[in-house]
Amino acid sequence: MAKELKELTSRNENYSQWYNDLVIKADLAENSAVRGCMVIKPYGYAIWEKMQAELDRMFKETGHVNAYFPLFIPKSFLSKEADHVEGFAKECAVVTHYRLKNSKDGSGLVVDPEAKLEEELVVRPTSETIIWNTYKNWIQSYRDLPILINQWANVVRWEMRTRLFLRTAEFLWQEGHTAHATAEEAMEESIKMMHVYADFAENFMAMPVVKGVKTASERFAGALETFCIEALMQDGKALQAGTSHFLGQNFAKAFDVTFLDKSNQLDYVWASSWGVSTRLMGALIMTHSDDNGLVLPPQLAPYQVVIVPIYRNNEQLAAITEKVNAVIKKLKALGISVKYDDNDSKKPGWKFAEYELKGVPVRLAMGGRDLENATIEVARRDTLTKETVSVEGIENHVAALLEEIQQNIYQKALDFQQASTRKVDSYDEFKVEIEKGGFLLCHWDGTPETEEKIKEDTKATIRCIPIEGDKTPGVCMVTGKPSAQRVVIARAY
Predict the structure, then answer these.
(1) Residue 193 and residue 227: Cα distance in Å, rounded?
(2) In whole angstroms, what is the distance from residue 434 CA to residue 453 CA?
(3) Residue 298 belongs to a domain
(4) CA 226 to CA 223: how far, in whole Å?
(5) CA 483 centroid distance within chain
(6) What confidence score (pLDDT) does residue 86 get?
């Protein structure tokens, strides 16, 4: 295991390679036989399940229910909303036939030309079209509204340059799709879900985020407004961690979804959609982890505590196990997830290195001397420090420690974000500062032409127009024209 760690590229040497190494070595995911697609391994999937469970709880607390819609979308559906089809057309995987057959020359399977579909089916890149076609049958009156539905699903976007968790041809996500009687309700829903995502990112992922509005060129295809949360990774690049869209009546008009309002007038339904994906796994890794491996926030760790026995013989192991079982019972009573690793095929040192690599927040170790002294060794992953404490009351000590670790890694990430956020007033200064990474707060004249020039000149994009903080007007750093407020600009994943 020490060799495994030694082969982990350092962040300073090559951040991109460090990330790839860590995803593989920590047993999170691996590339599959299908180009651009990944296999999420059990340990990685366990983290995603924790994320999923917390988000699902938060969605249900805000009145949403889960449903499921088809993976396949008729091609004609996608073309009904002009901006939507333009935004996704280049990424669509298309099903054209429904049957294979053996080739006549015996060389293998071929597509049966007689099994051509009357209409091609798109493998969903997102579900607005199929869902709004369905909502047409569900909505007649204001009494049928609002509809607050979420779907947990996989989607396909045919990416050419892929990277585990961050950008893959197929990925897992959730997508909320809501229908409302008024624009105000739909807008309120869009903003509310942005805040839900920010709450999850900060309180569960321990990842500070900037909440904001996307510029017109960065909006979701088919949206009138896109709200987002932007996070800063340790290499100074931004990562879009979640988006929520006010869709107006665009999809209702495209699919003719109307309702009778309280005045008995016919109107189009108002909509929102919102989603986060397994990209959050990449965000989690890059926000907290170090050259020794993963650093996981206790709230999302598959097991928060691992206990390793150190023993000379089976008799000593039995005595330690008896003590440890009592500790496990007390920890579980406090809702703490625990793994007891008494696997005799691996030495304690190997186990310590493995759990450090996998980011387990707290490691407990008990040996013969601890047995005699009624003590236990406690190691914390965030600071890599150790202490020996009494077994008596260890459950309360660990519970407090887990809370402290959660807060500590959030604070560390917040300190980094704040130290990497700088105000820039001139374009010359901007070109220098963008090379250093981080969030740059700059004035922009609001035009797509200036936005495109910044992108072409520096490969940086306007991540969002912040909804909190300094709203002081000024002048655009590029053109000198009036600017309503500073925007966040960064290079991004």
Answers:
(1) 9
(2) 14
(3) no
(4) 7
(5) 32
(6) 87
Instruction: Tell whether pTM > 0.70.
Output: yes
Question: Would you call 302 helix, strand, or coil by DSSP?
Answer: coil
Distance between CA atoms of 394 and 406, rounded to whole angstroms?
18
User: What is the mean predicted confidence (pLDDT) over 81-94?
Assistant: 89
Q: pLDDT confidence of 81, banded at 50, 70, 90?
A: confident
Phi and psi dihedrals of 411, rounded to 5?
-65, -40
Structural domain count, the chain: 3
Coil, strand or helix at 128? helix
Domain containing residue 479: 421-490
Are residues 126 and 72 both part of a single domain? yes
Q: Is residue 221's pLDDT more than 60?
A: yes
DSSP state of 67: -
CA angle 287, 277, 16 (to 5 degrees): 40
Residue 320: which CATH number? 3.40.50.800
Same domain assignment for residues 209 and 140:
yes
3-state per-residue secondary structure call for 449-486? HHHHHHHHHHCCEEEEEECCCCCCCEECCCCCCEECCE
Query: What pairs with residue 279 in β-bridges?
Result: none
Backbone φ and ψ of 108, nearest 5°:
140, -165
